Amino acid sequence: MGEAQAESDKAAAAILPHYNMWDPQHEKVKWGVFAHARRNCPVAHTDADGGGQYVVTRYEDVRRVLEDPQTFSSTGVSPRPSPVQLNPLDSDPPYQVELRRILNPLFTRNFLLRFEPELRKNATELIGCFIDKGRFDFIREYAGPFVGNALSRVVFNEDDPEKMDHAAEVVIRVAIEATDEAFFELAVLAGQYIAEREANPVDRNDVLNAIATGTVDGGRPLTDEERLGVVTVLFLGGLDTTRGAMGSIAYHLAREPELEARLRDPAWIRQDMDEFIRLESPVGCLGRRATRDVELGGVTIGKGEQLLVRFDSANRDEARFEDASRLRFDVRRSSSAGFGLGIHRCLGSHFARIQIAIAFDELFKRVTNLRFADPGAEVRWAPGIANGPEGLDLLFDVIG
Prior knowledge:
By secondary structure, the protein is α+β, with helices and mostly antiparallel strands. It has a single domain (about 20-400), classed as CATH 1.10.630.10.
């Protein structure tokens, strides 16, 4: 082991017992911390979040946890504070399965492609707002508003243009600001839409109708709190992850200009997108709770103790992926955990892929040569559940 590696391991070993995913300083060094953990302590206890938790870092251990909901429960471990239970994310079978049954048909690729014309129109309008400047914040001026508009259209499906614009504004504020006030405003708006749809049913195959009319437990309608929880999950999950994935791809484009040629080839959606998603893992982690005493990765975890399951660390596990910390398009990869694994695999993964493909397709019709506005400036990555840059100040050249 070289001197630099020894120093890196020493620093990582000091952080690991106190690792906190909400700490911006820990976010800066997390890849080194996770690599150290995978080599030395793959299931490591940290004293973060009061009572502490076990951080699960290796692919095989992550997969085992996610594929065994009987032993590793999702209840009572919401990834962020919320006034409502975040179903189906924060629930277990059979209830979780029933909720996914309600939503799954509305998040298939074929169903979502009906929104493609509107998504392309929105992308074009957003590009038009910064095209003459030659510079933009990719996150705040493009990815955030684009994803916010897309989600508000798919979830609220509002016919009134003014109401749709207002809904999009609220969602975009959450996408860009992520403040408690913005989330509260979104929750109020979602509650209003749910109440209106319940009071005035319409014969429409869309997300709100499915939530308003869906049943669980052998025919019981969802309560108002359950409905609000489902809508909240759709936005919390869909905003951060898709925006983060888009931002991560743009970051790599700015670092490695030769990647642009790959993304201009329509085949990249099928051949290369998964590798970007593996490396940066838009869904970074989720929590679990042990329902019994259990051994995992050589460590005994007691009943009731909590785990932080790191999808992103699993996706850089050298035992699973060759040259795991680099983009490698010439290597055939096995399935990654970029959108999760098991029964809680990301409901909106098809929608995320559609949005990413459209956003870059429309962008590259108008611009080329994405690059950092200030190559020496630090790019800050958002701490928390999802992975992605907080902002990305880029220059570009206009085509034509």
